UniProtKB/TrEMBL annotation:
Gene3D superfamilies: P-loop containing nucleotide triphosphate hydrolases
SMART domains, sorted: AAA
Top-rank taxon: Bacteria
Organism of derivation: Gracilibacillus xinjiangensis
ABC transporter domain mapped to chain residues: 2-223
Transmembrane regions: none
MF terms in GO: ATP binding
Protein's UniProt name: ABC transporter ATP-binding protein
Family of the protein in this entry: Belongs to the ABC transporter superfamily.
Pfam families the UniProt entry points to: ABC_tran (PF00005)
Amino acid sequence: MLNIESISKSFQRKRILDHLSFQVEAGEIVGLVGENGAGKSTLLNILATTMKPSSGDIYFNEWNYRKDRKTIRKHIGFVPQDIAIWEQLTVEENMVFFEKLAWKKKSKQQLKQICLDMRLDRWHDPVKNLSGGMKRKLNLAISLIHDPTVLLLDEPTVGIDLKSRKEIGAYLRKQATENGKIIIYTSHDMDEIKELCDRVITIGEDRFYTELLKEAGKKVLSF
Ligand SMILES: Nc1ncnc2c1ncn2[C@@H]1O[C@H](COP(=O)(O)OP(=O)(O)OP(=O)(O)O)[C@@H](O)[C@H]1O
């Protein structure tokens, strides 16, 4: 379980996140929604341990984000908004490169299967020859190499075609339901959020998304 206790974050005295508290149980997919600049990426970065909150505490199972950062990192898969892959290398070489950095070992066949699960079959192609959507699929595949328990996805499906998005959505649902993964997911696509997420957290003063999602029958927690 992820337990977020009253976290706040300010940049140069400007408060972006203001005392957020919530919990996410194993097996849940939680959507993170809000207007541009509301603080969604900031919150994901904090949960991914790549940024520290100004105040507040976070726990993952029995571990505390302040004291057990290294252990927690092993369990987190993070897909930031910016694509971070090697353009000159092939899909295979990228997967092998990132597998070497991962603490869990995978065979080439397993790495290839992760790509196939993400609907990416261009194993031998250099990344520079892939489309934007295919690069996003590779980014997602890389985040899954070490079998993370917590998946933090920052607009992971931007530019991915609808059919692949549905298939990736089904894959994520299966990961949550059958393997108890925690998935926190930002998107500006409300249809996707409505379809995929069990619950939604909205951030920001604008109540537009809160109203929209409540009308659609979603459970919404607003900050
Ligand atoms: N390192 C930083 N230093 C200063 N300000 C920052 C920093 N990172 C983010 N911000 C500011 O914090 C606010 C929230 O940014 P964030 O990227 O978290 O928003 P977001 O909800 O993810 O937006 P989007 O939907 O556009 O991706 C913005 O005003 C942004 O300019």
